[in-house]
Amino acid sequence: LEKVDPYRAKIMPVYTVSQVTRYIKESLERDALLADLWVSGEASNVARSAAGHTYFSLKEENTLMRCVMFKGGSGGEHILDGSAVSLHGRMSVYEVRGDLQCIADIVRPEGMGERSLELERLKVQLEAEGLFEPSRKRSIPSFPRRVGVITSPTGAVWHDIQNVTGRRYPLAELVLAPCQVQGDNAAPTIIEAFDAMNAEPDIDVVILARGGGSAEELWPFNEEAVARAIYASKPPIISAVGHETNTSIADMVADLRAPTPSAAAEMAVPDSRELNERIVFNA
């Protein structure tokens, strides 16, 4: 007997993306549990729009859920990065991107999340030990010959630092110690990079850099071991982690903080054009 292909025997309908997304959304909103529930977790990636809406994530260890509280919701002032909250809302799908999200209408504070509490504890400890002390911070050499860079070798950050340094002060040699800049294995590789820099001869200054990212992605730069590696560095350190609004423990321990990796390169080397103009002016 000839086998019958079930897909040929019964022609299956083909749905559009919007049809499938809308079906998932309607299914979620019909579910009695998901349409009226309380959820607890730690708020992160908080962003407030000009229209008064609050977008954030609720996380628990390795699980993350996108959330939104529209203008007029109750308790939006409690949604802060690192705060542990309980929210009431309903699960839905944002059809434009197909994102699962919780639409919150009430938020109550539960105190600080465990990770943020640990961060505050570590800040107090390191400050008491003198790692943040301004008087111990070293000056950056005016005319460095060898500039160390600790960052990912594949990201835009390394490319930007090369461009800025080459344009401003091509006499400086860049020495890269590659590392991971996010994830569970990032902190050990950053520490290994500092060990490599300390073993490298004649490094005048080191740039520790990473581009912008979420609180979770920037977390390796809040690790105690990374802070102590910065403190123990032989050359002075310029830290450029994330954007100007991000402040990590690495920034607080470093000898100098830059708002961006490109700005760190500008701080590390002089501008040769300005130097030439001074020479001509004083001649």
UniProtKB/TrEMBL annotation:
InterPro entries: Exonuc_VII_L, Exonuc_VII_lsu_C, OB-fold_nuc-bd_dom, Succinyl-CoA_synth-like
This protein's UniProt keywords: Cytoplasm, Exonuclease, Hydrolase, Nuclease
Alphabetized GO MF terms: exodeoxyribonuclease VII activity; nucleic acid binding
Presence of the UniProt keyword Iron-sulfur in the record: no
Domain Exonuclease VII large subunit C-terminal: 131-279
GO CC annotation, single: exodeoxyribonuclease VII complex
Any one GO BP annotation for this protein: DNA catabolic process
Domain OB-fold nucleic acid binding: 15-106
The UniProt record lists the keyword Glycoprotein: no
Protein name, entry field: Uncharacterized protein
Record organism: marine metagenome
